[in-house]
Amino acid sequence: MEATVVPRVKVCCISSVEEGWMAIRHGAAALGLVSAMPSGPGVIEDALITRIAGVIPPGVGSFLLSSSQHAEALIAQQRRCRTNTLQLVDAVDIGVYSALREALPGIGLVQVIHVVGEESVEEALEVAPHVDALLLDSGNPNLVVKELGGTGRRHDWGLSRLIREQSDVPIYLAGGLTPDNVREAIETVGPFGLDVCSGVRTNGALDEGKLDLFTGACRV
Fold it and tell me: What structural domains does the chain harbor?
């Protein structure tokens, strides 16, 4: 896909209705709601995800981050939480996508690709035809305790650019983004969207000053 000049911003690890509205006031196009994970920040209960998703206004994406790899569990969780997008943070069998499409019509599917090397480019391009977008992050699902996001680390943005150039679906860029490096990220990768968590937080709480700097840098 072509580079995006002013990418959308997805603020992840939203932990309350108040944080959600703060992100929306600063122009967030989507909110990330993190369910149970083997590691990483921002995890909240499904009941709170449902509550936050229920007040997000039309036009703003509500992303349920799920670590499940099984269609039945993913379908049941999305139906409980009632978000408009399902973000799969771990790899799934190809057949899972068709099962999700059939059971959850109208729900966006976003697959996370953890960019660990050149093999991640091939992985991303194999998955792309089955989903609505890819999210390129800096986790490592091969560890004993899987890292499936929220690491605060950068990965090789050159590989992310290759994926964006060859992919037929939009690309979100995640991993170590901050107000200080987001402009470089946009110019290097040209993603459709940016996904930020720790880079706009202080002591775990969403920081309005950092959020303002981050979204402002995206519009320069």
Answer: 8-218 (3.20.20.70)
